[in-house]
Specification:
The chain has helices at 2-27, 46-96, 112-130, 135-139, 168-183, 188-193, 195-207, 295-301, 335-338; strands spanning 222-223, 232-233, 242-244, 313-316, 377-378. By secondary structure, it is mainly α. It has one domain. The strands form 2 sheets. It has a 3-stranded antiparallel sheet with strand order 3-4-5. The protein has a two-stranded antiparallel ribbon with strand order 1-2. Helix 5 (168-183) packs across helix 7. The radius of gyration is 38 Å and the shape is elongated. The termini are far apart.
Length: 385
C-alpha cells in the first residue's frame, strides 16, 4: 500500500514538471531561438544612447544660446551705464557755456548786432577748443596750416579767431597730442584712427567732474585699442566710444533734438544771429562791413542752414562694431579739411556727398554705403541712457 502511494506521488510530480516545461516552451514559441532566462541587464541599447545624446545636445544649445544672450545683454548694459556717465559729465560742462563769459575784444561803440555776431563766433570757438571731437581741433594750436588764414584785430593769441587767448586746457590737450605723435613716429593715420574717442577721453578727464571724473570709471572702461598712447573709453565689446560735439546731421534720429530752428533755436545764440540772411533788412550790417578776416565766419551765420539746439552725440558702435556715423577722420595737415566746421555746426560737407556731421549712412565713415547704425547705443534715445 505504501509503495503504491509513493509511486503515485512520484508520477504526479513528474506530470507537474512536464506540464511546467510545456508551459515554458509555450512562453517562448514567438521566438525562433531558444533563449535561457537571464538576470536583469544593466546596459543600454543604441537607440537609447542616441536619444540621450540628442537630449544633451538640445539642452546644450539652449544653454549656450541663453548664455550668449545673457552676455550680450550684460555688454549692452555696461555700455549704456558708461555712456550715461559720459553724458552726465559732458552735458554739465556743455550747459556752462550758456552763462560763461566769452573773453573777446569788442571795441567800444561796436554795433550791437556785430557784437552779438562776435559773441556767437567766440562762444563756438571756446567750445571747440575746450571740447574737441577730432585731433584737428587740438592741432590748430601749433600747425600754421590748420589755423584760419586770417586773424582778427586786437591783442589776442594769433591762433584764435576772436578769442583773446587759447584756453589753458586746450594747451594740455595739445601736449597729449604731441605724445601720441611721438608714440606713433608721426603716423597721422594711426593717430586719427580713434581721434574722436581719444578727444572724448581728454575732454572728460581734463575738463569735467572737477578733476575727479576718473574715479567714476573702472579699469575695464578704459583702454588704448590702437596703441598710440592716447586712451579711449571702451564699450562692452571692447571698442572705442566716440562722440560728435555738434551732431546736426543726427536730428532726425534723435529724441533730444527737434531740428526746429524757430521754436527750438540754439540756446547759445539768444539773439538768433545764426539765421537765414535777409538782404532787405536795413538793420542788418552787411558782411562787407566786418573786418576782412571775419567776413567768412559771419557769412556762415547767414547761410541757408539756420541754427537749432544741438546735444552732443556719444555713441558705441554696438555688437557689430560698425558705427556708420560721420565723425570725419580728418587729414589735419590739409587746411581744407582741418577745420570742417569753420565754427559753423550746421555746415554741409560737400567734399564727398552732401551731409552734415553726425549723419548716418552714405558718408566718409560709411564706406560700404549700408547704414549699420541700427544697433548703435547712444545718448540720444532715452532708453539708452
Amino acid at each position: 500500500m505504501k509503495l503504491n502511494a509513493d509511486c503515485r506521488m512520484r508520477s504526479a510530480e513528474l506530470i507537474r514538471i512536464r506540464n511546467a516545461e510545456f508551459g515554458m516552451r509555450n512562453l517562448y514559441t514567438h521566438s525562433p531561438f531558444r533563449t535561457p532566462h537571464s538576470a536583469f541587464r544593466s546596459g543600454v541599447t543604441l537607440i537609447e544612447l542616441l536619444i540621450a545624446v540628442a537630449i544633451i545636445a538640445t539642452l546644450s544649445a539652449v544653454f549656450l544660446g541663453a548664455s550668449r544672450s545673457a552676455m550680450e545683454s550684460a555688454r549692452a548694459a555696461r555700455t549704456k551705464t558708461t555712456i550715461a556717465k559720459l553724458h552726465t559729465l559732458l552735458m554739465e560742462q556743455y550747459a556752462s557755456y550758456m552763462t560763461r563769459q566769452v573773453d573777446i575784444d569788442i571795441p567800444s561803440g561796436t554795433d550791437p548786432q556785430v557784437r552779438n555776431d562776435l559773441l556767437v563766433i567766440g562762444r563756438r570757438e571756446l567750445m571747440k577748443y575746450e571740447m574737441p571731437d577730432r585731433w584737428s581741433d587740438v592741432d590748430l594750436l601749433a600747425n600754421p596750416l590748420n589755423k584760419p588764414t586770417s586773424t582778427a584785430q586786437g591783442s589776442r593769441d594769433r591762433s584764435t579767431v576772436v578769442l583773446r587767448n587759447v584756453p589753458a586746457v586746450a594747451r594740455m590737450y595739445y601736449r597729449r597730442f604731441e605724445k601720441a605723435l611721438a608714440t606713433t613716429n608721426n603716423d597721422m593715420g594711426k593717430v586719427n584712427q580713434n581721434g574722436s574717442a581719444e578727444c572724448l577721453y581728454l575732454t572728460i578727464m581734463l575738463l569735467t567732474g572737477d578733476g575727479e571724473a576718473r574715479t567714476l570709471f573702472s579699469p575695464q572702461d578704459i583702454g588704448d585699442t590702437d596703441e598710440d598712447g592716447a586712451p579711449e573709453f571702451l564699450d562692452g565689446w571692447g571698442n572705442p566710444i566716440r562722440w560728435v560735439r555738434w551732431p546736426a546731421g543726427f536730428a532726425l534720429k534723435s529724441s533730444l533734438m527737434t531740428g526746429d530752428t524757430d521754436s527750438d533755436h540754439d540756446p547759445f545764440d539768444p539773439f538768433h544771429r545764426d539765421s537765414v540772411d535777409e538782404p532787405t533788412n536795413p538793420k542788418q550790417p552787411p558782411v562787407s562791413s566786418y573786418p576782412s578776416q571775419l567776413q567768412g565766419f559771419v557769412s556762415r551765420l547767414r547761410d541757408n542752414n539756420p541754427a537749432f539746439r544741438l546735444v552732443p552725440l556719444i555713441f558705441s558702435s554696438g555688437p557689430d562694431g560698425i558705427g556708420d556715423v560721420s565723425t570725419r577722420t580728418d587729414n589735419i595737415t590739409d587746411p581744407s579739411t582741418a577745420d570742417p566746421y569753420y565754427l559753423d555746426p550746421y555746415t554741409w560737407d560737400t567734399t564727398y556727398n552732401a551731409y552734415q556731421f553726425g549723419s548716418t549712412g552714405d558718408n566718409p565713415d560709411d564706406p560700404d554705403g549700408d547704414d549699420n547704425s541700427i544697433d548703435n547705443i547712444h545718448n540720444h534715445v532715452i532708453d539708452n541712457r
